[in-house]
Amino acid sequence: MNKNKNSLEANNRKSVAVTAVIFLLPVILFLAVYVLYPIIDTFVISTYKWNGISANRDFVGLKNWKRLLADTKFWAAFWHNIVIMVVSVVIQIPLGLALATFLNFFTKKVRISRVFKTVWFFPYLMSSVAIGFLFTYALATNGGIISTISGWFGGQNVDLLGNPKTALLTIILIVSWQFTPFYMVYCMAGYSGISDDIYEASVIDGATRGQYFWKVALPLLKPSLISAAILSMVGSLKYFDLIYVMTNGGPGSSTELMATYMYKFSFSQFNMGYGSTVAGGMFILITAVALLTMKGLNRGGEE
Predict the structure, then answer these.
(1) How far apart are CA 118 and CA 120, in angstroms?
(2) Would you give the end-to-end CA distance of the chain in angstroms?
(3) Angle at Cα 168 formed by Cα 163 and Cα 173, nearest 5°?
């Protein structure tokens, strides 16, 4: 009897394992072809001098990597990514949390809540390219919104995107305008995981809305905020499209990012070998920052 029972359990485990492999195989193949292979091939191409078109490739070993380590423009682009990362986290997540908190207090007034949700979420629904062209025209030196308002008060034209001192900050504010709604929805999802009974118990104990937020809701939202911070950091380090459309890394190299720097070498200068090296450097730096951030935030969350 025990032998039959053990045999049946073994067959069930085998059946479950076979079923799991069948369902996981397409995902594994997809990740292997479209994620793992491109990463490996990027590092392989980085050891060659290649224009990305011809069949002939000259092996140069670690020459491209030595060049990258000494490339001040790459490290300046990395610094711009870090600036965007830090400022984006400081702006986007607190604003998203504030909007989500506001909407959470209007859950009973469904019509008002829907209006605010629709209006505030709209920027995230727009493509980055469309937003780039929209703000390029809106901030144009001649006829732009800021220049027009300045002219009403007798001022001169304002060139925010053409000034190296203001271009990066302007881009950061536009990026924040686009992605703050995402973190608003992210925090709203966190609020939905907090039971109404907790709020009612807080009210019964005499807590105000402010006290409920700081003492109850915020600690419960910490896991969601940590995840949002990691998403924001990683996204900022690989940002590309809005910068490419609006400034293409200019004026000069004041808004150059690692992704735009890689694109110029790979597809504008047809130096695929060094472009792949820049992409490999991006992968290493983004992975390192993400791992350190996760470790630091998780340690802080445990404390």
Answers:
(1) 6
(2) 52
(3) 115
Beta partners for 48? 59
And the tokens for 196?
A: 């109404």
Between CA 103 and CA 105 the distance in angstroms is: 5
| 8-state DSSP, 46 | T
**DSSP state, residue 295:** H
**What tens digit of pLDDT does each residue of 112-153 get?**
677 777 888 889 989 999 999 999 988 888 888 888 888 888
CA trace torsion 62, 64, 66, 72 (10° rounding): -170
Task: Give the separation between CA 2 and CA 78, rounded to whole angstroms.
Answer: 64
- DSSP summary character for residue 257: -
CB atoms within 10 A of CB 135: 23
Residue 281: other Cβ atoms inside 10 A:
22
Helices H / strands E in the chain, number of each: 14, 2
Q: How far apart are CA 103 and CA 113, in angstroms?
A: 6
Place of tokens 């940002």: 239
Peptide linkage before 251 cis (omega within 30 of 0): yes
Q: What 8-state DSSP symbol labels residue 80?
A: H
Query: In a 3-state reduction of DSSP, which class is residue 48?
Result: strand
Cα–Cα distance between 288 and 212 in angstroms, integer?
37
* pLDDT single digits (tens) 77-109: 999 999 999 999 999 999 999 999 888 876 655
Task: Return the structure tokens found at 8.
Answer: 């049946």
Token reading at 263? 């694109």
Q: For residue 194, what are the CA distances in angstroms to 14, 51, 150, 224, 281?
A: 40, 55, 47, 12, 41
